[in-house]
Design goal:
heterotrimer, A mainly alpha (294), B alpha/beta (537), C mainly alpha (323), A: 294 residues, mainly alpha, MetI-like fold, 13 helices, 72% helix, globular, C: 323 residues, 12 helices
């Protein structure tokens, strides 16, 4: 199943703006997803400007207050403004999601393409290592990372990223294997180009479509993984504003007395992951010539 | 010395009785017999079943109903800190030989659940295993019995303990709720048998243990306390997640959780179930301790440590935290309510307790500036347990920020948390101090330097503090001892600023109103054999 | 074919050994150990001698290499030793928890198939209509919702609804009874977690069904069938669905292997005494032997499910040859 975008994409004829408009017309759901992602990104980047309160400041005069004009989404058990925490949480989610997806994705890309290109023993070793990591339960990996290096956003990212690498490399490898047999790769090899050049110039661009789709879905998965780790007490730590962490403390204890503590961060996670997935789906449809509506 | 002990103890129990905000209804009702009590244990049902070996309350809450002990805290007056009564013995003996020899008479006619008679030899075999375990056996609290010289069982009904020196800490130690009496015949065959099996002489006979899930017992018809137990049986279900336990009590899948529920759960249950829920509350003989690493810069500077304490508004904080965490009372190094505990006026002189928080924080800033630590940034080690470590930690981080400190938390599971403290690999740690029987002089020994008390992780050196402690230990006049306790406290928190108590815990036990007879104590380790519980159904 | 199977089976050995080495190493890199957790977890003081005795008793004071070789030798003999936490054989600990986990996994898969295949097919057939949009949002909702949150909320909903209707709140039992002893009690406990697990699982499979169907519907043989004037229903059932199910089966297989991991969180929420919860306990207690055995079990399940899926794939699709 080759997905060669290069021959197929009539991109040069259109401006980016036109492509975007075309995407929006053809993919209303994807556009909706894109809008959600853009909102999340803007919120995260400009949290200082938007957030009405300091997200980590306790206010014992306003504990577990329901939504009101002072606190649009209410406050949590420490009297912290939920809206401000969700706004800052968008930044944490972006950092965790994007970094994990990009680092995991690119490591997977390099390993996958390399594995496919070199084949033989290299491939065998990389594949067996991938097997081990893929089969290894996330919680042990996460606990080990957190216990050895301490928690903190960067270690949570590490714990989430490691299992993503082999999953990406598997998909990339199978695409790259078909690319490797293409005449132009043979030609490049015949010209005496080095492995790096062939991999970077010829193979990588040709596995970009499945790669991008996968990386997009990783962003959502990473945000969810952060939530699961928080639930097990291994995620980002208080008082850092993070959606998963907000669900962990509040959702359990105050689910029926102060449901807003549980509901709003949950909704934030759902919308973010929904947006990312809708956008990813639409991108897949747009990039995959077989699914493209003509 | 003994009279002092009794006086202090009586006063303590009186104060405690007052401190219980919600006590049981006044008039005694006649217990009804029958019914099965289902309760939840907030833990994983994992560890071994051997009380001598384990320290987690989960083992106690699951297995105490199957066993007898020698001496225990009075189950009808468990909030007292000095009311010890016999379980297997016939009466608490007056010590002879200048307070060194205790000769107990063992209750005749007691039978193990397998029908064999329980004699002084079984008691002695069990206590020998606790005090000086044979090679290959670990006894978690053996160090509480350094005063014991020898244990003898001259005949079937006599059990003698001889001490090396007279001490106040003997009787509370003897009332250790984990000190189950095992069968000598079984121990002789296999010292590890009790890790996987249950066979005692307590109010309930073992029925079954579903690994990791639940444990069940049925009434022991041959129980020696007349009329007891009232229940036909019990079932304890392990439920580590709080939401599950709350829901379970709400839906009457379980009647009670005996450790403690957070205030939110109590409020919710009362709101939803009204008078179908009864709540018992008590100050808890556990508290959080803020421990700066006295050996590591910049916390080797007493000014920085003091600034750390001065940043915290305990009075306002405790009030607010009491709504969201199992903490309530502001106190010093002694369990609040004990006659040895500092009064509010005495506390207010110590850093971390100043009544004027603005003044306190201004002083903190001044000290930081003087020490050249205006932008103090550090990591606080904490345990990944929400109630109350997590809540107290989050509160503290915000308090520190109010004097310009930048604090992040390193929240890790129990193993790495303990390990980091033992290796001194932390800047500031939030730890806990949890004891069972209230024993002010003995309990405050935990604030002594690490080389004297290995479980102290402040890593400080303070000869003055040690000297005061030794004086207090040998002081027999309660009034003078209390003065020394103030000196010790001032040296620990004020002068040396080695460690700070940050809020004592508060036990909240909401239960279905049909559960009667159980009385709360200041420790979740005490009074759990269920013999006096009955169901009003 | 047999040569291929033999080769694949042989290739699982380095994977299993690698996983064994990794879990052994990771567990020992975590600071602290089970004796500290056992003795110091309660917050009280303990006898330092007890710590030493505990180390000797469970054998962690021996050289690491000896412990590792013992572990590997144990794997070879299928002997995983005793749990350091409870003192019971590891196999006893795991077997006690396996039934409920398997039950949830199987029920969850059933729920997933029941939702995913019909909805995925409809979604593909009605591509870009409002039905498609609704189904896709429903599907992505399943992926986008944290499962523990869904679990907590669903129990709460059951409690509130039952309290509103009957006056007394009801929730599923919190202790497991085998299905052959009390089927009603068993199922009333299992159904909510099965739905929670199944929904997420369905969401993934539904998307796969949809895209596979879309692809198949464009294949020549479907066009041919259509050109022959066959009824749409027949085309879908006879020609398209059968072929579209191929990747779905693959996915179901792979996801089933992941399910054990997915149960970690769900079992906590519903107080299920399953393998997932045991996993969390074992890791948090730093119970080396039990964690090692559990990891080997999950890795083995994963590896062999993958193998099975590959073989099944070849059997379903004659175009694939094993080389």
């Amino acid at each position: 199943m080759s997905t060669t975008v290069i021959d197929d994409a009539p991109l040069p004829q259109r401006s980016y703006w036109q492509s975007l408009m075309r995407f929006c017309q053809r993919q209303p759901l994807g556009t909706f997803g894109l809008v959600l992602v853009v909102i999340m990104a803007v919120t995260g980047f400009s949290a200082e400007l938007i957030a009405p309160y300091n997200p980590t400041a306790n206010d014992f005069a306003a504990m577990t207050e329901p939504p009101s004009w002072q606190h649009l989404l209410g406050t949590d058990q420490f009297g912290r403004d939920l809206m401000s925490r969700i706004i800052y949480g968008a930044r944490t989610a972006l950092i965790v999601g994007m970094t994990s997806a990009i680092v995991g994705g690119f490591s997977g890309l390099i390993l996958g393409v390399g594995s496919a290109y070199f084949g033989g023993t290299t491939d065998l070793i990389i594949q067996r290592l991938s097997d081990i990591v893929m089969a290894f339960p996330l919680i042990i990996m996460a606990l080990a990372v957190v216990a050895i290096f301490g928690p903190g956003v960067q270690n949570v990212i590490m714990a989430i990223t490691i299992p993503l690498i082999p999953r990406c490399s598997r998909v990339v490898r199978s695409s790259a294997l078909t690319v490797r047999e293409m005449p132009y790769v043979d030609a490049a090899r015949a010209c005496g180009f080095g492995a790096t050049r062939i991999i970077m110039r010829h193979m990588v661009p040709n596995v970009m479509a499945p790669f991008l789709i996968m990386v997009t879905s990783f962003v959502g998965q990473a945000i969810l993984a952060e939530a699961s780790l928080s639930y097990l007490g291994l995620g980002v730590q208080e008082p850092v504003p993070a959606w998963g962490l907000m669900l962990q403390g509040g959702a359990e204890e105050y689910a029926s007395t102060a449901p807003w503590i549980a509901i709003f961060p949950g909704v934030a996670i759902m919308l973010a992951v929904l947006g990312i997935n809708l956008f990813g789906d639409a991108m897949r449809d747009a990039l995959d010539p077989k699914l493209r509506e003509r | 010395m003994r009279s002092w002990f009794l006086k202090a103890g009586l006063a303590a129990s009186f104060a405690l009785a007052l401190s219980l905000s919600l006590t049981l209804s006044g008039q005694a009702e006649t217990p009804k017999r029958g019914g099965i009590l289902t309760y939840v244990i907030p833990a994983d049902g994992g560890p071994s079943l051997d009380g001598h070996k384990e320290t987690t309350f989960a083992v106690l809450h699951a297995t105490a109903p199957f066993y007898s002990v020698m001496v225990r805290v009075n189950p009808d007056n468990p909030s007292s800190t000095s009311d010890f009564v016999c379980d297997l013995c016939t009466e608490i003996p007056k010590p002879t030989d200048n307070g060194l020899t205790y000769t107990f008479k063992i209750r005749p006619g007691v039978k193990f659940h397998d029908g064999t008679p329980l004699t002084a030899h079984d008691v002695a075999a069990s206590w020998r295993r606790i005090v000086s375990p044979p090679p290959g056996v670990s006894s978690a609290r053996a160090n509480n019995f350094v005063m014991v010289d020898k244990i003898e069982d001259p005949d079937d009904t006599t059990f003698v303990i001889t001490l090396k020196f007279d001490t106040l800490s003997f009787m509370p130690a003897l009332a250790d709720p984990y000190a189950y009496i095992y069968s000598k015949a079984i121990l002789d065959k296999d010292q590890h048998w009790y890790e996987k099996n249950i066979m005692g002489s307590g109010p309930f006979k073992f029925v079954k243990f579903e690994i990791g899930q639940s444990i069940e017992g049925v009434r022991n018809p041959d129980y020696y306390h007349p009329g007891q137990p009232y229940l036909d049986g019990f079932k304890a279900i392990f439920a580590p997640k709080e939401s599950v336990r709350l829901d379970a009590i709400r839906a009457d899948r379980a009647a009670v959780e005996f450790r403690s529920m957070p205030p939110s759960a109590r409020d919710q249950l009362i709101k939803l179930l009204g008078d179908k829920i009864t709540v018992q509350e008590s100050d808890w003989n556990c508290g959080n301790v803020l421990t700066p690493n006295n050996a590591r810069p910049p916390f080797d500077d007493v000014r920085v440590r003091k600034a750390l304490f001065l940043a915290i508004d305990q009075w306002k904080g405790a009030q607010a935290l009491a709504k969201i965490a199992v903490v309530k009372t502001v106190g010093g190094i002694v369990f609040p309510g004990s006659p040895f505990a500092a009064t509010k006026e005495e506390l207010e002189k110590l850093p971390g307790y100043w009544p004027d928080i603005e003044k306190s924080r201004a002083e903190a800033r001044r000290l930081l500036k003087e020490a050249g630590q205006e932008n103090l940034t550090f990591e606080m080690l904490n345990r990944n347990v929400d109630q109350p470590y997590g809540i107290v930690g989050t509160w503290l981080v915000d308090e520190f920020s109010k004097v310009g400190m930048h604090v992040t938390q390193r929240v890790v599971p129990t193993g790495p948390w303990l390990d980091a403290m033992r290796r001194g690999d932390f800047a500031v740690a939030l730890e806990a101090n949890c004891q069972n029987v209230v024993n002010p002089v003995a309990d405050s020994g935990r604030y002594l330097p690490h080389d004297l008390y290995p479980e102290n992780f402040a890593y400080h050196k303070d000869p003055v503090q040690v000297e005061i402690y030794n004086k207090m230990l040998h002081e027999t006049d309660p009034v003078k001892a209390r003065v020394l306790m103030r000196d010790f406290e001032n040296q620990t928190i004020g002068v040396g600023a080695h460690q700070l108590m940050v809020t004592w815990w508060y036990r909240i036990v909401p239960m279905r109103s049909y559960v009667k007879g159980w009385k709360i104590s200041p420790s979740h380790y005490l009074n759990q054999d269920l013999a006096n519980i009955w169901l009003d159904q | 074919m047999y040569q291929y199977i033999a080769k694949r089976v042989l290739l699982t050995i380095p994977t299993l050994l690698g996983a064994a080495a990794l879990v052994f190493l990771l567990m020992r890199l975590i600071p602290g150990d089970i004796c500290l957790v056992r003795l110091g977890g309660g917050g009280g003081s303990f006898d330092p001698k007890a710590l030493v005795a505990c180390h000797t008793e469970i054998g962690v004071d021996r050289p690491v290499i000896v412990q590792f070789l013992e572990f590997i030798w144990g794997i070879i003999r299928f002997d995983f030793g005793t749990s350091m936490w409870s003192g019971k054989p590891v196999t006893t600990e795991i077997l006690a928890r396996l039934p409920i986990s398997l039950e949830i996994a199987i029920l969850g898969t059933a729920v997933a198939i029941a939702i995913a295949i019909p909805l995925g097919t409809i979604s593909a057939l009605k591509q870009n209509t409002w039905i498609d949009v609704a189904v896709r949002i429903f599907a992505i909702g399943g992926i986008a919702t944290p499962s523990f949150w869904l679990g907590i909320m669903s129990v709460l909903l059951v409690l509130d609804v039952s309290a509103a209707i009957t006056g007394t709140p009801w929730m599923p039992p919190i202790d497991y009874v085998p299905i052959w002893k009390d089927p009603i009690r068993n199922l009333s406990m299992a159904i909510l977690p099965a739905i929670t697990v199944g929904y997420r699982y369905a969401a993934v499979s539904m998307r796969m069904t949809r895209s596979a169907m879309l692809e198949v519907m464009r294949e020549d043989y479907v066009r041919t069938a259509r050109a022959k004037g066959l009824k749409n229903k027949l085309i879908v059932n006879r020609h398209a669905l059968k072929n579209a199910l191929l990747p779905v089966v693959t996915l179901l297989g792979i996801e089933f292997a992941f399910l054990i991991g997915g149960l970690v969180v769900t079992e906590q929420v519903f107080n299920l005494n399953g393998v997932g919860r045991l996993f969390v306990q074992a890791v948090q207690n730093q119970d080396y032997t039990l964690t090692q055995a559990l990891v080997m079990l999950t890795v083995a399940i994963f590896v062999f499910t993958n193998l099975l899926v590959d073989l099944l794939y070849g059997w379903l699709d004659p175009r694939i040859h094993f080389a």
